[in-house]
């Protein structure tokens, strides 16, 4: 196979597979960099009703502001007015103030909305929508020293210099990349990465009619602890968005999951009496749902995100549970970092027509992964730990999340760590922000302070666990 040499006469071009949050974010970033590209979406529609709520934190919000869609998102949502951590019986454990604190630091509150709304704004905000092709299911990718040729099921194809796999946790692009690696002796064996992502938890989720729940305010967050489950409820005017995460069969690698009606009914029956608040049960939410379903909550991170002329972004490379709401945020950040790397390469090239060699692309991809790997892995582990703590997977996790993490001193340490993390989140390096105040004190925190905050949190965590262990041992002996 030889990719058509005519491509070498054209401008540098990127082929993006997948028009979800990551693919559309990449399109925004590449259009702002004046980089030619096409986005291939296998579905007929861009916007999917699958999934419930997500939270956009300040780091990702800054990137969306650079895209020009943040102001509309803020105007169509309501900042969180109250936060609750609840015991298994629905009563209140504590009332954190994280959302308000983040607004004090960054001048912007976290934004709560459903996945569908974010996709709509990303798509509607594109400067050029013609770059997005629907009904474009990728079947195979051919690559050589001239570039890539991506073939669709309908017989059409697209040329480019590289392919970005933004097609989710069950990425077909990733499978094609691994196939290429296995055929190419110069590439490392991807065998370990085939087992890198697993699933142990599932989530039954939905959106319900808020008129049925007058005890819920119009803009609240409820984190509900329990044995074996972790429950989240987000309210916004016109919607109650919720999810119940529960431990299920372990699978590595995860298998695509499509429950039938009887299986869904079994899960609903199993959890119908779970308390959300003092006067609301899971069954109450389910009965008056507008839509709902069950999803796997995959988690894991690949050791290598690229091979040849193919590179992965978002859930195709790193996936995490939903409890801390950082999955979409990490994906948007990764898209911005890859766009920065490509923009620098194109802008810094002295060639009249820039077409990087495969070794040059490998270096660019390695640079992108090195900027993202540690941060994403830390957040992924934190998310998984939070899921297991909130669902009381061990006595230590139960003690930590119920009694230690809620202490005022720990709340302050957690907020400091959150602020430091968002302060140094990546953004597009070649575009200014539009509405965000970059002089807000949160953005001015120095990177070295993060290390000290992280060290303090770890030390306090270990100290309190030790003290808890001594107390429990003393009680048992007594």
Describe the overall structure.
- It is a single chain.
- 42% of the residues are buried.
- Mean pLDDT is 90; it is low at 459-478.
- Helix 9 (327-347) runs antiparallel to helix 10 (358-390) and helix 11 (395-404) packs across helix 13 (447-477).
- The termini are far apart.
- The chain has 13 helices and 21 strands.
- The strands form five sheets. The protein has an eight-stranded mixed beta sheet, with helices on both faces. A six-stranded mixed beta sheet has the order 7-2-1-11-20-19, with helices on both faces.
- Strand 16 (275-277) and strand 17 (280-281) form a beta hairpin.
- It has 478 residues and is an alpha+beta fold.
- It has helices at residues 21-32, 58-67, 70-75, 98-106, 115-124, 172-183, 261-271, 282-287, 327-347, 358-390, 395-404, 408-423, 447-477; strands at residues 13-17, 36-40, 53-56, 82-86, 92-94, 111-114, 132-133, 138-144, 147-152, 157-160, 162-165, 197-208, 220-224, 229-236, 239-251, 275-277, 280-281, 289-301, 306-307, 310-312, 318-319.
- The protein has one domain: FAD/NAD(P)-binding domain (3-Layer(bba) Sandwich).
Quick summary:
The protein is α+β, with helices and mostly antiparallel strands and 478 residues long.
What structural keywords apply?
478 residues, alpha+beta, FAD/NAD(P)-binding domain, eight-stranded mixed beta sheet, six-stranded mixed beta sheet, 39% helix, globular, disordered C terminus
- Overall mean pLDDT score? 90
* CATH C-level name: Alpha Beta
Range of strand content: 15-25%
Low-confidence stretches: 459-478
How are the strands ordered across the major sheet? 5-4-13-14-15-12-18-21
Give me the number of helical elements: 13
Class computed from helices, strands and strand pairing: alpha+beta
CATH fold descriptor: FAD/NAD(P)-binding domain
CATH superfamily: FAD/NAD(P)-binding domain
